Amino acid sequence: MTETNETVAVARNDAEGRYDITVDGELAGFTVFIDRGEQRIFPHTELDEKFSGRGLSGILVHDALEDARGRASA
How many CA atoms lie within 13 A of 57 on its CB side? Predict the structure, then answer.
């Protein structure tokens, strides 16, 4: 396995209604969310083809769900 020094970050982007994932500051993808009462629905996830095959979609969805769970229990 090749190690990289890339910085991967997931951040909630309320202005766009989505969670963004960046690699070294470059937008790699996003997952859209819609709030319906106490539910947060994720109808669409997209990852730039340039970043495919690196497990970033899994990281994005995991972090988005963790954030949603944290807000639900707060």
Answer: 11
What are the pLDDT digits (tens) for 46-67? 999 999 999 999 999 999 999 9
CB 16 within 8 A of CB 29: no
pTM for this predicted structure? 0.88
Cα(67)–Cα(18) distance, rounded to whole angstroms? 12
Q: How far apart are CA 29 and CA 23, in angstroms?
A: 9
Could you give the CA distance from residue 50 to residue 72 in angstroms, rounded to a whole number? 34
Residues 31, 47: contact at Cβ < 8 Å?
no
The torsion angles phi and psi of 4, rounded to 5 degrees, stand at -125, 160
